[in-house]
Design a protein that fits this description.
Length: about 250
């Protein structure tokens, strides 16, 4: 089956605009837990970065421009950004996997910690010797250096299931509340998130998702859009059987 020429051109144009790449996940989690292949979904990370879109990248402009009569708060208004979309694979939020699978993942994570503890004991007695510091700044520098030298702990929630930041598709995180069903008010079908609006692109727990091209110390990387909705994250869910059914919002 041949693709129409214009769809190939669109695909090429889309690819040239992708200038971010997520580092490979630290573990191929589907190789460890085959059952997770049934709980995977692609997400398109948008990787917004401050900037003004080029005129040629903007498609047909709607007239009149839809605008809400009032935005309410400054945190509801995004900073102009350029997007660098990229597809990643996500896995279902831990609390929504079956009990058996959740237990197996917890045991596997514990076994990883066990390996790290074993490594620590090989450092010798010096690593546990009490140290004294002339000033708080010295103490702070020493603990920061020790933290940087530690291998990052890998866990399912932070590194292997859901990508942080603005994204289309994928799964919803329920890290602040217990998972809640999001069903279509008209036909009762489960509604996946269409768009996730996030207050940050990366935090201490999700550093492994930081694009290779970016620097974690750059505020334009960590909070490029400047929005703060809900307690940091808003999702727009749509009905997969009929997009004209009313959408729903969830917050974390
Ligand atoms: Zn519906």
């Amino acid at each position: 089956m041949s693709e129409p020429a214009d769809s190939i051109a669109a695909e090429q144009s889309w690819r040239t605009r992708m200038s971010r790449s997520t580092p490979p996940r630290p573990v191929d989690i589907e190789a460890v837990f085959r059952a997770l292949t049934a709980h995977r979904r692609t997400a398109t990370r948008l990787h917004p970065r401050p900037g003004v879109p080029r005129a040629e990248d903007v498609g047909t402009v709607l007239t009149p421009q839809p605008e809400p009569p009032v935005a309410g708060r400054v945190e509801c208004v995004p900073t102009p950004c350029v997007l660098h979309p990229e597809q990643v694979v996500e896995h279902q939020y831990l609390g929504l996997l079956g009990d058996d699978l959740q237990e197996q993942i917890a045991e596997w994570e514990e076994s990883l910690l066990g390996d790290e503890d074993a490594d620590d004991t090989e450092d010798g007695p010096d690593s546990t010797a009490p140290a004294s510091y002339a000033s708080y700044a010295e103490y702070e520098a020493a603990t920061a250096a020790a933290r940087a030298a530690e291998p990052d702990e890998i866990d399912y929630m932070s590194d292997l299931s859901l990508a942080p930041g603005w994204k289309v598709g994928g799964y919803a995180s329920w890290h602040l509340t217990d998972p809640a069903p999001v069903d279509c008010p008209r036909c009762a079908t489960s509604m996946p998130p269409l768009l996730t609006v996030d207050t940050g692109e990366c935090d201490g727990g999700s550093r492994s998702w930081l694009p290779l091209e970016d620097d974690a110390d750059d505020p334009g990387v960590i909070d490029p859009v400047g929005t703060y909705l809900g307690r940091g994250q808003m999702r727009i869910h749509i009905c997969p059987t009929d997009p004209t059914h009313p959408h729903r919002l969830t917050f974390q």
